[in-house]
Amino acid sequence: MTGPATQLSLGTKLGYATGNVGLQMQIAAMNFMLMIFYTDVALVAPAVAGAALLVGKVWDTINDPLFGWMTDRTRSRLGRHRVYLIYGAAPLAIAAAAVWLVPPGLSPWAAFLWIALTYTVFDTLMTLVQLPYQAMAANMTRDYDERTSLTAYASMGALLGFFAGSVFMPMLVRAAPDARTGYALAGSCFGLVAGVAVAVVAWRVREPAESVAEQAVRPVDADTPAMWESVHETLRTTLHNRPFLMLMGAATLVRLGLTLVQASLAYFVIYQLQGDKGDLPRFMGTLLGVVGLSLFMWKRVVDRWEKNLAYILGLVFCAAGLVALYWVGPGDQRLVTAILVVVGIGMGAHWIVPFAMVPDTIDHGHMQTGERKTGMYYGLYGLMDKLARTLATVLVAGMLDVTGYVPNVAQSATALQGITLMTGILPAVCLVLAIPLLVAYPITRSRHADILERSGRH
Question: For residue 326, what is the DSSP state?
């Protein structure tokens, strides 16, 4: 296993970052455009679409920690995590495209079943690929600051993918003869890019050799009772890692808030700001461009500060900007642009800092138990992240339904109030609630050095 001082080559960092380009394209397109595709193009009632998406997350409550446990116990000549990328790239591409292919004229029940099935299959394959992809990073180096550097490159790849997913999706849709065809073609293109990006990581990045202690972990047991006992034990020890629970709680609140913004922004621009759909790529480009410019600024901040303090500073910036959106009126495009600059600066911290903190909490767990259960940690982290995304989508759908939203027409004052709350005030509240958990987060640079020293003596 790589030691504490392992430095990664530029080629390795760039190769690893490529995977995030394809994966984040899918996440961004679905966060920003999936709900409005269902309601305004596929003409599915918001409550039906929201309930169908929730079905996938019921399965997600099992598959994230289960798949994490599986990767921890996988032994393959192709690598513990890399093997899932090799065999998962093509199926993920196909499933991602299918999400955007809702047949016209479906009844409410048929639409519910179609959305629930296609999204659940996609989500399952996404977990099987994304979780091992993320877990690779925790084992590539154990240096406190080198992890931040790797995360900065990975975050830049994620940002490029997020930009493509949020900006190019509406552009490709507008260029097509009709919206339904546009979404189908864009979804197919994005699925292909995701598959290729994952394949590049599998080709370019190799996992480090495992330590003797890690090789001693038993492979997946075919005996079902023993398997579930092992899953339960691994889950129990993971949940005894206090720094991990604090970080996961804070990151989940932040993810909930930011996904509320992403899912509501299209409605806010079109109906509250009274712009047109052509304005949406420009605003998204502004937001993500600022995030990208801020990433290496945050890297320098983290090099000088503790990671939790840098994260808190970013959340303060982001929350302040989101609150300001409440006072935006029709036509205030310059004001929205200025606010998005502030939000983007703060959001940049979330794109880099928590992903550099998760491996540190895994080192803490290794010190406690003597075993690196990387997959289970990322499984639980991914589970809470996805539940937050889904809850945000359901909340937006519920708000639209309760406030009387009607697609493709001028909205009532009640509907506009709901859209504004979901875009600004409620997300800001979520970010503020995460700050106390980060204040109490105990792993500092010096504490991490002590953890590595004690782990080496384990």
Answer: G
CA gyration radius for the chain?
Answer: 21
Whether 252 is in a domain gets the answer yes
Q: Largest Cα–Cα distance in the chain?
A: 66
The candidate with the shortest Cα–Cα distance to 265, out of 24, 23, 28, 21, is 28
Q: What is the CATH number of the domain that holds 32?
A: 1.20.1250.20
DSSP symbols for 79-92: -TTHHHHHHHHHHH
pLDDT tens per residue, range 226-242: 554 466 676 777 778 89
pLDDT the model gives residue 243: 92
Give dist(CA 112, CA 456) in Å, integer: 52
**Tokens, residue 343:** 């939000």
Contacts (Cβ under 8 Å, ≥6 apart) of 265: 32, 280, 283, 284, 423
What residues make up the domain containing 188?
11-206+229-456
Of 20, 53, 19, 104, residue with least CA distance to 259: 53
Q: Which residue has the tokens 């509320």?
A: 260
What is the DSSP-derived secondary structure letter of residue 409? S
- Answer yes or no: are the C-beta atoms of 188 and 169 closer than 8 Å: no
DSSP-derived 3-state class of residue 57: helix
**Identity (one letter) of the amino acid at 388?**
A
Residues of the chain below pLDDT 70: 1-6, 61, 208-232, 234, 276-278, 455-458
| Whole-angstrom distance, CA of residue 380 vs CA of residue 67 | 10
Q: Count Cα neighbours of 45 within 13 Å in the Cβ-side half-sphere.
A: 12
Mention every residue, 6+ apart, whose C-beta is less than 8 A from residue 442: 242, 243, 246
345 touches 288 (CB < 8 A): no
pTM here? 0.73
218 is a domain residue? no
Q: What is the pLDDT of residue 207?
A: 73
Residues 215-274: tens digit of each pLDDT: 444 444 445 555 544 666 767 777 788 999 999 999 999 999 998 988 888 888 888 888
Q: Residue with structure tokens 């609140």? A: 253
- Measured in residues, the chain has a length of 458
d(CA 52, CA 325): 30
Structure tokens at 265: 């922004």
Domain total in the chain: 1
Query: What Å distances lie between residue 362 and 79, 88, 220, 248, 448, CA to CA?
Result: 19, 25, 21, 12, 11
pLDDT tens string 136-147:
877 777 777 787
Q: Dihedral sign, CA of 280, 281, 286, 289?
A: positive
Residue 258's CB: how many other CB atoms inside 10 A?
A: 23
Task: Identify whether 161 is part of a domain.
Answer: yes
